[in-house]
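okkk here we go again. third time trying to get the nicotinamide-adenine-dinucleotide bound version out, last two times i messed up the smiles copy paste (missing a bracket lol). double checked this time i swear
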Amino acid sequence: MKQLLQERISTRSLRVGVIGLGYVGLPLAATFAEAGFHVTGIDTDEQRVDLANRGESYIPDISSATLQTLINAKRLSFTSDYAALDDIDAVSICVPTPLRKTRDPDISYIISAAQQVRAHLHPGQLVILESTTYPGTTDEVLLPELESTGLKVGLDFFLAFSPERIDPGNPDFSARNTPKIVGGITPTCTELALAFYGAAVEKVVSVSSARVAEMAKLLENTFRAVNIGLVNEIAIMCEKLSIDVWEVIDAAATKPFGFMRFLPGPGLGGHCIPVDPHYLSWKLKTLDYRARFIELAAEINSGMPHYVVDKISEALNEQRRSFNGATILVLGLAYKRNVGDVRESPALDIIQELIARKAVVLYNDEYIPSLTLRDRTLHSQAVSSGLLQAADCIVIVTDHSYYDVPWIVGEARCIVDTRNMTRDYKDEKIFRL
Ligand SMILES: NC(=O)c1ccc[n+]([C@@H]2O[C@H](COP(=O)([O-])OP(=O)(O)OC[C@H]3O[C@@H](n4cnc5c(N)ncnc54)[C@H](O)[C@@H]3O)[C@@H](O)[C@H]2O)c1
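finally!!
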């Protein structure tokens, strides 16, 4: 089995499957197709499958032209039918891993994908989980499901975990040049996963187990969440001390070692940083241990949208205005610059609180044409002089690079800037974090 898979990898005759065609899965499928493999993408969302088959990309990191080229070369196709797995040698699972309302892990998508893989598992298949999850998921959840077929891991089929690390919107790092970690259930599983990713990704690092690979991903994202929590608290402290936090960070960052630059902001967003550390703290709770750094960082970071609303209140107060009836223009909804991803974005909490305080909220985000919140739908407004002048307060939540800052500052009555976009202006109408 092992030799056969290795030979198929080296001759590019290995048939690759990717389950879950989102921010992670679609670029991964294209990366393997670009490396010369025949790739089948599987998603339960028929609309996504149809778009992808027409070569229309819905993920900004993959262009429609790239999809079209790979489809025309017959190296990439998409389906919602799991029967395709019957012909697949290696399959990567890239389904979502959100939190439940209780902030506990929701691994139902992993379980559902694992059940489908089980139904089509055949001797010689390599199965890899890429979704971010708590340590133990691969060997406690996937392994028993797959071995219930009677097939044996390491002999009949192979199972590994390899966390996805892509950074959507990052022009420098893609699935191809971001090093990949792999950890298998057995040494043979690791060896095969290493060879598989090594055929499409520039650098692959192997670790001794799936658990180490799962934990490494959670360390990376917890590291970010905790450091962002720290710098957000430093911003709150600087405000109390009447010190410009941005100047402090610039000064500290001149140290060439032992310091890493993190920036304060309106709060965490996206599918990863606000979510993943809770997978770790949940797992530790089952072992009667409290993950204190994670809890504290989450408390500080989730308080930032309210902190921003307090800043808006201060800004309105200077104009002798209250929230009630004030027009607030929010610039940027996405959780980070130049992407269209609004999942967990702090802009949502800020807008909800402004609406609850009876403000009239307008927004602009060219990446997000409309936003549905509980009982209402808002639509992105084109930025114009009239719009900028009409706002009692403009709140910069996302620093999209298309914003013309000098023009916005010139037209605005008052600005709350959570991203330091207005760093070049010293003006009493600008309120920074
Ligand atoms: N987005 C990121 O920047 C990023 C980075 C690194 C890791 N991750 C992790 O990768 C995983 C996927 O994240 P994403 O951002 O790509 O999610 P996504 O929501 O963009 O895409 C997931 C896709 O999976 C599909 N899907 C759901 N259940 C399915 C099933 N049973 N079978 C087939 N398809 C199914 C959905 O329809 C969707 O298209 C998550 O665990 C996430 O934490 C995400």
